């Protein structure tokens, strides 16, 4: 696919009508699949839409039906197929004078449709709101207590059962960003979280466009590769996950480095890490690549600034991301690659010894990438490989974790990274649609 060199694109012929017609068909499939999911989900009472305050009654036009697994999986399959075909056609379409405008309209439309719909697949957004209400309305530190402490709050019944007794795992910057949601009421808070995700998504895509231009890649192709990605649209935006806020700060750091502004880039990496800890992995690669300490001083300044703001609110607990990482590392999800590998090997699941082996493997991968970066390897590629390795070796893999490396992959020098990201996402999607292929579904 992916990113096409601008100069190479300038020498290619304008795409023919057949190519444009096929691309148009792919666009229609993307829009139709997204609308199908959103309108059916708006009906409510679906295992794919967690219980939530009613925010999408205005979408119940009488044409949707309760979103079932079969309909969703078919929509996911169609979306993925159209996305893959559109990427194959991207090199032929990019010379068209309106290609950039079309890509912006497509991605913008998909983003708005998904953000206008109900929350999908995950209760995480209700945890965000619960932690915010704990701090703002109930005077409780979300780093010391779980939502169980506010069981009489109306948000409590929407929080996932696994997280009722668990303190927040998110960084203090995100927790502070979520605090304004507490005063908006339940419906207002859900919309507020969606607006935050929408703004972060738009910012990430704009920065990715800028980074693509800086590296000589076709920004229109890069925009579609990220903004029309099925997991980005249906899972990342569908769940209003704060991962898109982390990717915004990561891509801001990349853009700043490309602009030779390393100190603010270091601060942006810290901001990413204080949303979700995995965002901080970019910093050592920037330092090894640039061979200067500017990014480190910027990171220190950013950390001090956020600590000064967050300490009066959370104390030192807000900066203790290690305990949250250790806690989450012990969890096992059915979609994780280690869990699936264990089943293929005839094991019932992942054992403590397996967790240790996975950590050792991840450390070895990161050390190797650091060494290669020191030897001149592209630091963006190394950072992307690290984020992908974290997702693949994690026993707690969720769809939106596979998005961490995607914006980096489309602007990386090593095109193998993008292939690997697509391969991991493809395997995840195949795992999701496997029930369609079982005899029971026929």
Kindly describe this structure:
With 442 residues, the protein is mostly helical. The chain has one domain. It has 19 helices and no strands. It has helices spanning 6-10, 17-43, 69-93, 99-116, 124-137, 172-178, 185-214, 219-227, 230-237, 243-258, 262-273, 282-290, 294-314, 321-329, 337-344, 352-374, 379-393, 406-409, 415-437. Helix 7 (185-214) runs parallel beside helix 10 and helix 16 packs antiparallel against helix 17. The two termini are 34 Å apart. Mean pLDDT is 88; it is low at 1-11.
Summary, kept brief:
The protein has 442 residues and is an all-alpha fold. It is built from 19 helices and no strands.
Please compute the radius of gyration using only Cα atoms: 22 Å
**Percent of residues in helices:** 55-70%
Q: What does the overall shape look like? A: globular
Average the pLDDT over all residues and give the rounded result. 88
Structural class: mainly alpha
What profile does the largest beta sheet have?
Answer: none
Q: What is the helix tally?
A: 19
Helices and strands, in order, run as HHHHHHHHHHHHHHHHHHH
User: How much of the sequence is in beta strands?
Assistant: under 5%
Can you tell me the number of structural domains?
1
Unreliable segments of 5+ consecutive residues: 1-11
End-to-end span in angstroms?
34 Å
